Model the fold of this input.
Amino acid sequence: MSLIEPGTPLPPAHPSEETLDLLAKRRSVTAQLLGEPGPSPERLNALLEIAARVPDHRKIEPFRYVVFEGKARTAFGEVLRESAKRNAPDAAPKKLDAEASLFERAPVVVAVVSSVDREHKTPEWEQVLTAGAVCQNLLIAASAAGFAGQWLTGWPAYDEHVLREMGLGPNERIAGFIYLGTAQEDPKERPRPALADILIRWEG
Done:
């Protein structure tokens, strides 16, 4: 995928029954059920470019990525192990091994980082929502490319030592760890809210 030059005219809508069908059937696959293959580095870059096409009030770009793939997942596991041991000094070795292997559950893990500019006039909440939209876009793009995924946080997303080792700054947080790979079994539908329970049409 090549980037579109700024100023290039684009269609205002893209009628597509395939897209509607994808959205109607979109379903996460738990990280434990994500195996090889995952997206190649080149394919992943294309998906990340697509994911970045989100509503972004005043073009702040309040997000960035940290990618874990290949041996880097195992190497970062030692950071997770150290943090887990700090948090629970009496944890059993088996428990620490499990924490250290979190990023090895899928071939690729993408950390979507919310990078808020608190000095900017755009409200912080809007900037955070933009990062959340990136997470959802990435899941949808990955699905369209033939991969399954899951959006998770978990304790590493809130652990100061983990975030420091990832290079996050004081105004940055993890919007989500997006696990990507190939589903080892088909997911089943889960309950969804009835539209009548979540919809009000304001009539004055």
Observations:
- The chain has one domain: 27-182.
- The mean pLDDT is 97.
- The CA atoms of residues 27 and 191 lie 11 Å apart.
